[in-house]
């Protein structure tokens, strides 16, 4: 997968990670990331996702979220930090993410709201919506959006996946959901490794 530019603000602190390549602080962190990616994304789905996307490139940081775009498909992935957030704020936060960048002529249509475990057992909620445009006589669906909300003990993190159209989502649903189920927490960028087991944590 292709890497984007290394931004100092992206390398430190507590972060939500998904199985997309990001700049690493050092070779040890890079090795740990590679091992973790194999654990959180099944190999067959990882190969299919890479064939679909050509890899994701980190292009920006906006509103505290790291923004990635796929090289070969109309996909945008936004990954947020890990935060302490009361459960009462979850619905509002997820709806705000789903509505990111909508114009006045567009509206959201929620299709599903499901809870279950991530690939490695963390609590996960995925809300799936379509963006419906009011332009024209009949309007129309313009893109699919999935927001994934993860809970890691007392911390929470969110990711938003924008999928270019219905056909892309329907054809590659398994790969896209596997990507969202791959989330794991990075509490901080390690300065070194005390024991070998840290490479798998």
Verbal overview:
It is built from six helices and ten strands; from the N terminus they run αβααββββαββββααβ. The protein is α+β, with helices and mostly antiparallel strands. Strands 2, 3, 4, 5, 6, 7, 8 and 9 form an eight-stranded antiparallel β-sheet that branches. Strands 1-10 form a two-stranded antiparallel sheet. α3 packs across α6. The protein is globular. The chain starts with 7 loop residues before the first helix and ends in a 15-residue tail after the last strand. The N terminus and C terminus are likely disordered.
Sequence-ordered SSE layout with sheet pairings:
Blueprint: H1 8-11, E1 15-17, H2 27-40, H3 43-53, E2 56-62, E3 65-70, E4 75-79, E5 83-84, H4 90-98, E6 106-117, E7 123-133, E8 140-152, E9 155-163, H5 166-171, H6 173-180, E10 184-186
Antiparallel strand pairs: 1-10, 2-3, 3-4, 4-9, 5-9, 6-7, 7-8, 8-9
Helix pairs in contact: 3-6
TL;DR of this structure?
The protein has six helices and ten strands, in the order αβααββββαββββααβ.
Classified in CATH, the superfamily is Mog1/PsbP, alpha/beta/alpha sandwich
- Structural Rg: 17 Å
Got a strand count?
10
CATH fold call: Protein Transport Mog1p, Chain A
The SSE order reads HEHHEEEEHEEEEHHE
Structural class: alpha+beta
Helix content: 25-40%
Largest sheet: 8 strands, antiparallel
CATH architecture verdict: 3-Layer(aba) Sandwich
Uncertain parts: 1-11, 189-201
DSSP helical segment count: 6
**What is the CATH first-level class name?**
Alpha Beta
């Amino acid at each position: 997968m292709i890497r984007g530019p290394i931004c100092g603000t992206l390398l430190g602190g507590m972060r939500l990670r998904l199985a997309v390549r990001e700049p690493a602080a050092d070779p040890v962190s890079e090795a740990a990331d590679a091992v973790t990616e194999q654990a959180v994304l099944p190999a067959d789905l990882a190969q299919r996702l890479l064939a679909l996307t050509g890899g994701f490139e980190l292009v920006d940081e906006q509103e505290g979220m790291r923004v990635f775009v796929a090289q070969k498909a109309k996909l945008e992935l936004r990954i947020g930090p890990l935060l302490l957030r009361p459960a009462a704020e979850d619905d509002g936060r997820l709806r705000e993410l789903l509505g990111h960048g909508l114009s006045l002529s567009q509206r959201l249509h929620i299709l599903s709201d499901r809870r279950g475990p991530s690939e490695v057992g963390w609590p996960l909620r995925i809300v799936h919506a379509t963006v419906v445009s009011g332009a024209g006589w009949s309007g129309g669906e313009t893109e699919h959006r999935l927001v994934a909300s993860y809970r890691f003990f007392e911390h929470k993190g969110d990711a938003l996946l924008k999928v270019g159209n219905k056909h892309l989502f329907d054809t590659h649903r398994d790969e896209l959901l596997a990507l969202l189920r791959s989330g794991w927490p990075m509490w901080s960028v390690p300065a070194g490794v005390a024991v070998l087991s840290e490479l798998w944590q």
